[in-house]
Amino acid sequence: MRIDEPTHDQDDINALLRQLDHPGPPVSAEVIVARAQGRKPGWGRWAAGILLVAGLGGVAYAVPGSPVPGWVNAVVAAITGPGTPPAPSGPLPPPVPDEAPAGVAVAPGGDFTILFTRTADSGLARITLTGGSDVVVRAPGGAATFTSDIRRLVIDNLPISAVYEISIPAGAPRVEITVQGRRVFLKEGDRVTAEGTTVSSQQYLLPLKP
Description:
This protein is an alpha+beta fold and 210 residues long. It has 4 helices and 12 strands, in the order H-H-H-H-E-E-E-E-E-E-E-E-E-E-E-E.
């Protein structure tokens, strides 16, 4: 409290404090709010503090069903106005991981095989013939893992809906694609044999169905 505030404020506060040691007539929150609003802001802050102390002295503040917490909140809200909403209680849900796309690039050599280890009812491979020198496979994050050597690329794919982007060099001598042991694509020189849909002479859509 500022030193230059009127002494009648201090007198009122002292009177309220003395009532903690001697039972007195009950004072409702509404009365204290009305008095606080009729005085300057300094008195309002002291009134809220006095109400809290009185509640703790006359009634157990934390007793279930006690009206004291509601009175204190009403006085503070009336004097200070609405504040920042309380933060939500309880643990926050963990963030959903955002997995980056996976991919691999392999030089195909003279005879190269791409093997999908599993079928997928709604899975799809999009094959594009390019002017590059490597076989490049891209997959959604978490959809597959890759193992490669000089003659083959093994795609250990999950049986889920996913689109695999496969780029094959147009100049590669021979590239074969199998799904769980079944051939679905074969490029030998300039000749291409493919199951599924032929989009153009450079692009093919292969379902990964059984």
